[in-house]
Amino acid sequence: MTRAPEQTVDPRPPGDEHDDDDRGLEFTGRSVLTLCGFLAAMILGLYLLLPQLTGLDDTWSRIEDGSPFWIVLALLLTLGMFWGYIEMFRGVFSKVGDGVIGRTESFLITMAGLAASRIFAAGGAGGLVLQAWALRQAGLPKRVVADKTISFLVLTYFPYAAAVIICGVGLRVGLFPGEAPFPMTVVPAIIATVMMGVAALILLVPTDLQRRLDGFARRTGMLGRIAQRLASIPAASSAGLHDALAHLRSRDPALLGALLFWAAQIAVLWAAFRAFGDAPPVAVLIQAFFVGMLGNLLPIPGGVGGVEGGMIGAFAAFGVDAGLAVVAVLVFRALTFWLPLLPGVISFFKLRARVETWRRERGATIQSKA
């Protein structure tokens, strides 16, 4: 098994600006305001129409009896969620950024990425594209960005998969209190186990698989070159997984950010339930949360409705009161999903200014070496 080499990154060669990486990210203030207005209309429709569509017209009357203490606590826990995500990002990328990716840069990139993931749905793909663009502009080569992004995703979502398995199986066998419908417990646990097994198999793929196919590509022409290009996907995945294991062995405290990221979200949801009634058992809360989050994979504009509907449906399957679930989930999503939209847009424009600074610094380096 080939291990991923330690990655030390030098800035890109002078003059290698890769202006094509910047295409599609030329957002103007007008275009951003248009997108935000579109999303605001969709959010308003969701929050006003969903209770009526579910036959729960009196749902919002619960807000009058809600506890301000629990809402404020949920807001503070939301800040902890963002902090954990930022620290996780910094822990993965700071050491390969040649000192460029510090805490401020991590804040700007992650918050801008979170806003992009809200505007462009499909599992946060928009946020990943923006993060990759920013890291390229900071001077990281494409292969390093790809490897480290996979490492970041693996480290971030490993607690997700582990929680689904532990809580799903634990509920089903009676280890944890709460209802345990088969589709909400065993099925997600099996899927998570299979995904972890696939990841373990990918670790066996040589990280230099593309180089090993050089001879095959020369002998077979176009077919070999296509195979060599396709090999970049499993090779980069293997390198990213090896890098994730290296981070775990390093015991970098920043990696605790992944745990804080998920734990804070679940705590926000718990506080939202407590604001309007009793919270479900902890294992049920965790399992319904993670199963409902799969709705984020739906390519719905702005991601509006996918997770909300999935999470409310998951809680209903666990026997949680539907009216309480609707209010708690919508408050949770307002805090954790829509709250970062405005600071994320501001961070995007600040990030663009930081990118211009990086470009000027590279230009000064070119002149000094001329």
Automatic annotation (TrEMBL):
The keyword Amino-acid biosynthesis does not apply. Keywords: Cell membrane, Membrane, Transmembrane, Transmembrane helix. The keyword Iron does not apply. It is found in: Cell membrane. It comes from the Bacteria. The chain crosses the membrane at residues 31-49, 69-86, 106-130, 150-173, 185-205, 254-273, 279-298, 310-331. It is a multi-pass membrane protein. Its main location: membrane. Signal peptide: none annotated. Residues 1-23 are annotated as: Disordered. PANTHER family: UPF0104 MEMBRANE PROTEIN MJ1595 (PTHR39087:SF2). This is Flippase-like domain-containing protein. It comes from Solirubrobacter deserti.
